[in-house]
Amino acid sequence: MATPELIQLQRRRPEAARLPKRIRLPADDPPRPDWMKVRMHMGTEFQDVSQLMRGLSLHTICEEAHCPNIYECWDQRTATFLILGRVCTRACRFCAVETGLPDDVDTDEPERLAEAVATLRLRHAVVTSVARDDLPDGGAHIFARTICAIRQQAPDCAIEVLVPDFQGDEAALRTVAAARPDVFNHNVETVERLQRRVRAKAFYARSLWVLQRAKELDGGVTTKSGLMLGVGERPDEVAQTLRDLRAVGCDVLTIGQYLRPMATKLPVERYVTPEEFAQYREEGLALGFKHVEAGPLVRSSYHARRHVEQVRTVPTTAQE
């Protein structure tokens, strides 16, 4: 049942959610196996979240990246917020987010986002952004303002940020770290050999540096990163990436299957089996990750609250 707050918001802008698009897979993509099938469910809770986002003129990566988990997550009244607009300055070959010249920064966005967090009564909020290489600080000040706004309107909510690399700008990184998010997430996305093929204007070493500096700037923060498989990586390269992430103190790792969002993007080389994902999870835990979420449909923010809860239950002796 919709709350009075949601009813009021629904009157502002009754637009529908931008659902993951059904695409016709190119001939060079293998057919999707049964374990990649997702059940569509758009019940009352899903509609409430959709109307809330539209009413507050907010964006979600769930919609813009065509996430297959949108039905499950929104039905549980959770979403990953996308700040700084929905147009990215980079053109990564795996991502469905629109590339182009972004609009001006929406300075009221942090407060509206915090209102949504409070209305949904979230206990764990995930905030990410498009890359804004057009801004002097890459949008770091909006990340910081968003964290502060959530703290004010929803003080009991844990805050996770999934940030771009800010082009290696230490000052920008310090701005976000100073706002003290609970979880600092930055994805390496793929193995070192495939970085230039998969990511635009990104560097493997820089991503590792971002994670390392985040931990150095705030020793109490949980650092997190993510990998997608199925773009041509080898098992030994995945294993090396896990070791590299642990070497910079990364606490939490997510590993999922790459899905081609549109015909112009990278083809899927292969679908990794659930058994292989389970093996990578065990390898990660053996290396010392506090939590590894691995599976075909796993994305960076999938079950994000559970990631943090798991980290908090790991004994200190097992974390090192």
Short description:
It is built from 13 helices and ten strands.
Would you kindly provide a written description of the structure presented here, covering whatever features stand out?
With 320 residues, the protein is an alpha/beta fold. The protein has a single domain, classed as Aldolase class I (TIM Barrel), CATH 3.20.20.70. It contains 13 helices and ten strands. An eight-stranded mixed β-sheet has the order 1-2-5-6-7-8-9-10, with helices on both faces. Strand 5, helix 6 and strand 6 form a beta-alpha-beta unit. Helix 1 crosses helix 2, helix 5 packs parallel to helix 6 and helix 7 packs across helix 9. The protein is globular, with a radius of gyration of 19 Å. 46% of the residues are buried. The N terminus and C terminus are likely disordered.
Task: List its salient traits.
disordered N terminus; 8-stranded mixed sheet; two-stranded parallel sheet; 320 residues; disordered C terminus; TIM Barrel; single chain
- The total beta strand count reads 10
Proportion of residues in β-strands: 5-15%
Q: In terms of per-residue confidence, which ranges show pLDDT below 50 for 5 or more consecutive residues?
A: 1-15, 316-320
Going by CATH, the architecture would be Alpha-Beta Barrel
